[in-house]
Structures are given as structure tokens and as C-alpha cells.
Amino acid sequence: MKRFFRLRDSSIFKKMLAAFMVVLLPLMAITWLINEKGAESIRKEISQSTLNTTGYYLDSLEKEADRIVRYLPKYVTDDDLIELAATGNELSYYERAEKILGIQKRLVLMKDSSPFIQEAKAYVPSIDRTLLSIQYDTSIDRQEYAAMQPKNRSYEEPFIYWNDRLFISMQYPANTRREPLFVVGVELSARKIKESLAQIGSSLDGRSILLSVDRGWHIQSDDDPALLETVEAFIKVKQAEGKKEGYETVRYGGKSYLSVFKYSPLWNSYSISLIPEANVLGPIQTYRVWFWWACVLAVVVGLFFSYSLFRLIYKPLMRLVHSFRHVQQNRLMPITIDRGHDEFGYLYQAFNDTIRSLRTLIEENYEQQIRNQRSELKRLQSQINPHFLYNCFFVLCRLIKSERQKDKAYQFCLYIGEYFHFITRDGEDEIPLALEVKHSRTYVDMQTVCYGDRIQVRFDSDVPEFSVPRLVLQPIIENAYKHALGNMRTEGELWVHSEENEDSLSFYVEDNGSAVTDEEIDRLNTRLQLSEGRLEETTGLVNVHRRIQLRYGAEYGITMARSTLGGLKVKIHFGRS
What we know:
Oligomer: single chain
């Protein structure tokens, strides 16, 4: 859910790209699923066909082995072989040769009875000879003779595996613990078995193995020890799981092989055929390659779509967004129209028309603000406090009557002249800060004549080269005399100081009066904040505050707080512009 809301707040470019991916990815997933289902279907059909073929050839091998096992007792009970083994060297040379030739003829018939028989043999220890179908004079191989005895094989299995050769044997007499008179053995042809195994997957370039895990023998269609090791590990797992037949994918040599296996109870072994999946899947592999090329094409299309979306929509849209941000920062700059008559061309033209209209309105509004500022200044100039004027004349008269204060009366007359000259003259709306401070000092000097040494005044402010609206400092000082210092019975204190920053200048007027409470300070600040648009206030703090805001902006003006002297601290904040 959080990701959804993040996407909802993202740019149009990201949303459209996400929509494109939402459409493209399911299509690619469906294509991949169809391809995989087709591959699985083909794999299943090929596996079942190979399994049937394996069953057919394995059944053929089982029938041949069973036929040999069933036919072998007829040779074991051969009268000539029994007489030869029993009498041994007691027979004359002629009789013995005649019997051996007869036995060899029957061994030849046994050998020719099945293509899987490589050689038929009769081991006769009494004459120390092994009778073969193709040789007459042979001596007995005692190790081979010992290995051919049935005691060396499992009761359930008819086969004996010795020196990488596979035999089926039977002794006479069959059930005896003593050394038998003779043993008849058939050596199976590993070449023929390999040829039979090779037929299972030859059409798909497969390889087959007949593997007995329990007895440790194998016949492989081709000699590959690494493949045998891989298959043996695989079959051990299947044997442990109790699986008799099936098919799975096996990795060997960095390639995937379809492994089809089937168990033969008679041989006590598994027939395993490994077919390269590349040959099994055939066209599906081609389709997979096409699918990956389609994925590459989809990526290229996605990149082209993203680039086109960026060039045609996102980039011009961001130009429009940046232009609106410039408007928020009061930077009314038009957009260069580099589009045709499309939607963005229309928006650019509409934006430029709006900018021109805003410029016109701002210029008209600014001129109106200037006129209002001048009007308020003139109203402030015209509204001279009559009470202050009367007091000035009364003080002047008192000083003139006093013979000892004629110099002070003369100085006071100069103060009055400078004061009213500054108040009543028409001139620029803004004056150097030095003139405003000088006028404020003149006012303080006049009040010093009136109040004497009862009010101590400190001017600690530096006067930088700075232009401010007229009459912004003296009204604040006048307000301090009128509401705080004038009615004090104790000694009053007035402190005027300044603080200069890189982008602003602040004057502070502080007193030690006790007439203003904290609640009244909060109400005065609220009144100043709500003074915008209220024309009934034309004098005093509100007038000064509004004119400063008209000149420098809403973040400037007057704020009030509790002074460290105990009274009121008025901050007059100017901007550098």
C-alpha cells in the first residue's frame, strides 16, 4: 500500500513507464509460460517414448538371458561331457578327442543360438581343459573357473560379473558342496549389449548405461567415466527413494540431459538413457532463443519508449513545472516556444500569456502600493500630534521667561524647527538611514528638554549606508515616551541599538517601563499580524509596520517582546533590497 501511494505521488514519466511495464511484463510472462509448457509437454512425450523403447530393449535382453538360463541345463546334462569329466584321462586319446569334438559342436550350437552369446565354454578340471566352441586344445584358467562357480553369484541373479565380463554359468552336479565335475558357462557379448543400449536413444544422440549398483558392474554404450560417476550418483538417489522408472533432468558437463531410467529385476540393474535436452526440445530451444531475442527487443522498445516519453512528454512537462516554480519565486520568465501546434505548444503559449498578464497586474499592483505608501506617509505627516505641538510651545515660553535658560530656549527653537521641517517637507519616500536617526535624535533632544535628566537615553546603533522609508524610527521612540516613560515616577531608561546581517538590518527600541504586561504584548503582536488591509489604522506602530511590509515584504516589519530592561522591546526589521 505504501508503494502504491509513493507511485501515486510520483512523476507522470514514472507512472507511464510503470503502466507500460504492467502491460509488457504479463505478455512476456505468458509467452514464457506457453514456451515452458510446450517444452514440458515435449519432454514428457520424448521421455515416455524413450521409456517405452528402454522397456522394449530391456525386455528383449531379459528374454534372451532367461532363454539362455532355461536352455543351459540341457548342456549341463550332456552325456559326453559327464563321461569325459568323470573318466578324465582314463579314456583313450581317440575316444577323448571324439567326445571333445562332439561337445564343441554342441557348444557352437549354443553360441549360435543367441547373438548376445560371445562364447560358450565348458570347464573340465579332471582333464585340466576349458572346452571352447572355436578352439580345441586349451588349458583351464583356474581363476576364471573359480569365478564361474555359482557360489560366487547371488541366488536371485543368473549373472556373474568378472574382470569386466558378464557370464551365465551352471555346474554339475548342481547341488553339491564339493568341487563340481565341470562347469558350463556362457560369456555374454558386451558389444552386442552396448549396441542394443545404443539403439534406445540413438535417434536423439543419446547415451545409455546398464548399471547394477548393488553388484558394482556396468555396461556403457560409450566410455565416459565422468558420465558414469554422475549417473551412478543419480541412480543411488533413485534407488534410495524406491523409484523403479521415471525421467528427470541431470546436469553434466555444463549441459542438461534428460535422464530416462528403468529397473530390471532379472538383471538387478537400471537401464539409464541420457538424451541432450537440446536435442529433445529441438524447435522449443529455437523458440526460447526467439523469446530471449524478443526480451532484448522488448528492452530496446522499452528504452526507445522511455526516451520518446522523456523527450516528448517528460522534458517539456518539467520545463513547464520549473517555470511555475520560478513564478512561485516571483521570477516571471516566459518559456521559449520550441514546439509546434501540439498540446505543449498550446500550454507554453498559454503560460507566456499568463506571465504577461501577471506582469501587468503586478506592475499595476506595485504602483498602487507605492501610491498607498505615499498616501499613508502623507497622512502620517499631516496628523501631527497637537498635544505635542502645544507642549513644545509651553516649554518654549517657559524657557524664554527664564533669564538663565535663554540659550536653552534658543537651542529648543532650533530643535523645533528641525523637527517640523523634517515632518512637513515633501520629498523622497525613502531617505538615508542617517537622516532618520538624526531626526530621531532631534526628537529625543526635545524630550530631554521637557523631561530633564529623569529619562536616560542611549543611542548605541551604527548607521550604515542604508535607505529606509521616512518616519519609521521616531514614531517608535515617541510611542515609548507616550506610553511607558512619560508617566513613570522613577527614573526612566531608553536604549536604541541596531543589529546588521547580510540580508537585513534591525533596530531595537527598549525601555524600562512597567505599564505593558505580557498579555498586552501578545495582543499587540497579534494586532500587527492582522493589520494588513485595515485602513482605519493610519498612525503609530501599525502604520510603520505596514509601510515596512509594503516596502520589503511580509517577513519584515515590527515585532514586540519583553525587554531585558524590564519594559517593552520593539524590533524594527528592514530588508536589503
